[in-house]
Amino acid sequence: MQVRFPFVLSKSQRGALLILLLGLVFILGIQLIANHNESSGLDLSQTNYYQKKLDSLREQKQTSSVKSYTYNPNYLSDYNAYRLGIPLEALERLQLHRSTGRYVNSLSDFQSVTGISDSLKHSLSSSLRFPNFRSDPKKKEVLQKQDLNTVHAEALEKVSGIGSKLSKRIINYRKYLSGFSIPEQCYEVYGLDSVVVDRLLQNFEIQTPATISPININSSSVYELARVPYLTLEDAKKIVAFRTKNNGISPLILSELFVNSPNKVARIKLYLY
What we know:
Layout: H1 11-40, H2 44-65, H3 78-84, H4 88-99, H5 107-114, H6 118-124, E1 146-147, H7 153-156, H8 164-177, H9 194-201, E2 204-205, H10 222-226, H11 233-245, H12 254-257, H13 262-268
Parallel strand pairs: 1-2
């Protein structure tokens, strides 16, 4: 049985109806977009106001971040020298110059003492201030050196490059040695750079003798010898073996046992007789 619809559209009628529907969808879409823009649109004047606020805050931040400071180069710390881009060797020349009681009084004077380049001199012109210090050649500042064997850690920390950790390490090493016998022993402190030691010895010296109690090289046991600074357990065994084989040993013979360590021998002799 064939089903018949009550009405049938021709091909041309269907095409017209399709165009009409598409037109309605298009008109509705435009209307929806227009309504959305009206409801969510920002006031242009309000937008400009907030943009100006943001620009102002950004400018303030940039201004504060480049805030400049000026430094007196006669009292320049390692950290501030690093911030200014001054090389370590230039700072060391400056500190050596200052240790003689002299000052730098101008940017040209600063360049002459430190040996910095012309470009660095130019970049530092706004960062350094020069008080009118004058050095009187007839009245040179005399630096009173302090005693390495009695000085406290706090005084050591005044030396550029020595903080609380290194100052305590110097004191502990001094106790281990029973006092410094020669200034060169400061170079043996672990973590202490030779440049810093040079700076240390410009301000400190040995005034009080070390309190060493030497032990008998012929009667001391292996373990007693091993407790002597600069001697290891193997070194102590070598001394005892030589002593046993030769019916005794003198500290003068130590150079034969440690041929390649003359400095070590000189220090060991301080603790033996």
